[in-house]
Specification:
elongated, 6 helices, 64% helix, 2 domains, 3-stranded antiparallel β-sheet, mainly alpha
């Protein structure tokens, strides 16, 4: 992009008119000023996409919590005998589940930060499913029944979210300390 005037940007015509790619501020018509590029009508479409993507992520986590609660109520029996006899141990395990909830909230906040930029449908689906599975496992863990299986689903969801992020081409590459 060559700079012609203080507020004027020019972009080369690299895309053909038949392709339907979303228009961003950097891909607007040549010779438009910065204030014209920042008009609400031009920004509104990308903001609606970001809001929709964030809503999908949050709804998947809430849906996962609901599904985990339903699984807990339908499938879980009484807590293991050791946890029934020792109230302090049950309190400790529940506090560890709360720490896992904080980890899930941190992952969700990182995801909402990531969704501030345009995202393709496939990575969005990967993010939503992985955090939804982790949320369902978190709700299931609260029942104190089958904790090792629920922990596998919780960490499996977080790891699949990590792998989704590692394949997301819109994220900047990581820097090496070399």
């Amino acid at each position: 992009m060559a700079r012609h005037a203080p507020d004027t940007f020019s972009s080369p015509a690299t895309s053909s008119p038949t392709t339907s790619s979303p228009t961003t501020v950097a891909e607007t018509t040549p010779g438009t000023t910065l204030t014209e590029q920042l008009e609400p009508s031009r920004i509104q479409v990308s903001q609606m996409d970001q809001i929709a993507a964030r809503a999908i992520a949050i709804m998947s986590v809430l849906g996962g919590l609901g599904l985990g609660t339903l699984l807990m109520l339908a499938l879980a029996g009484p807590a293991p005998e050791r946890l029934q006899q020792d109230a302090e141990l049950a309190g400790l395990v529940r506090s560890m589940v709360l720490v896992k909830g904080i980890i899930l909230l941190a992952a969700l906040s990182l995801l909402t930060w990531r969704l501030g930029q345009p995202v393709a449908r496939l990575p969005l689906l990967g993010y939503a499913v992985s955090l939804g599975v982790s949320a369902a496992a978190l709700a299931w863990m609260w029942s104190l029944n089958a904790i090792p299986i629920a922990a596998l689903f919780f960490y499996g969801g977080l790891i699949s979210g990590f792998f989704t992020a590692s394949r997301d081409h819109a994220l900047p590459p990581s820097r090496s300390n070399a």
